[in-house]
Specification:
With 245 residues, this protein is of the alpha/beta class. Helices cover 28% and strands 12% of the residues. It has a domain of 126 residues: Ribosomal Protein L4, Chain: A. The longest helix is centred in the middle third of the chain and has 18 residues. The chain is flat.
């Protein structure tokens, strides 16, 4: 699979080769939903916290005696049934990490990239750089590449001038090829990928199996052996009638 390679002015300067195992897959909505759910859950800080009956302030003395008061039985001022008491099954502070295998994460990345490639939302450029950290230069660059809406620039290494020049542009994100994941790919409307970043993406996904329908052709079947000729059917012997019949 090939794609156009552009320069910073939006003119075609050549072609780039795209691996079918990365950009030629059929996306699975259920699989990508599973990855996005796990990814967003792991981004939560988990700061919400409530106190149980063992943590709230209050005396441990029994409010009143058990019987002969005409009131309901009570054993503690800190009961969850009382005002200012503890909270039952409330949220507790602490980060809960959900596991997601790395191989499945790389497959999710390849499916997300395949979806964007099928939509024509990825632009491949030779390089991205600005001489001075000026927002005007990055805005002109995006305009020449016809990038509107939420755009993500994928680089192979950090560029201080480029990131400083583009931080004032709304809906413009930066990502490194080594940190790219399926969620950030799906979140962007347009992607601008440099040639060195594309090579790193291919290296990250080099161990992935071929996409379905892209496997190597099966080996030719061996020629069938000639079948043996069928034996001639012998005529049935005549049935002798008995004397009494």
């Amino acid at each position: 699979m090939e794609a156009q390679l552009l320069n910073s002015k939006g003119s075609e300067v050549g072609k780039v080769e795209l691996q079918d195992a990365v950009f030629g897959r059929r996306p699975s909505g259920e699989f990508l939903h599973e990855y996005v759910t796990v990814y967003r859950a792991n981004q939560r800080r988990g700061t919400a916290n409530t106190k149980t009956r063992a943590e709230v302030s209050g005396s441990g003395k029994k409010p009143w005696k058990q019987k002969h008061t005409g009131r309901a039985r009570a054993g503690s001022f800190r009961s969850p049934l009382w005002r200012h008491g503890g909270i039952t099954f409330g949220p507790r502070a602490g980060h809960i990490h959900l596991d997601f295998p790395r191989r499945k994460a790389r497959i999710a990345l390849a499916q997300a990239l395949s979806a964007k490639q099928a939509q024509g939302a990825i632009v491949y450029v030779e390089s991205l750089s600005v001489e001075q950290p000026k927002t005007k230069a990055v805005a002109a660059l995006l305009k020449s590449l016809k990038c509107e809406g939420r755009t993500m620039l994928v680089l192979d290494a950090p560029d201080a001038n480029l990131s400083r020049a583009g931080r004032n542009i709304p809906k413009l994100d930066f990502a490194l090829a080594g940190d790219l994941n399926a969620y950030t790919v799906l979140r962007a409307r347009r992607m601008v990928v440099t040639r060195p970043a594309l090579e790193k993406i291919h290296t990250r996904c080099a161990s992935l199996p071929q996409a379905k329908g892209q496997e190597a052709a099966p080996a030719k079947a061996a020629p069938a052996k000639p079948s043996k000729p069928a034996k001639a059917v012998q005529p049935a012997k005549p049935v002798r009638k008995s004397k009494g019949s």
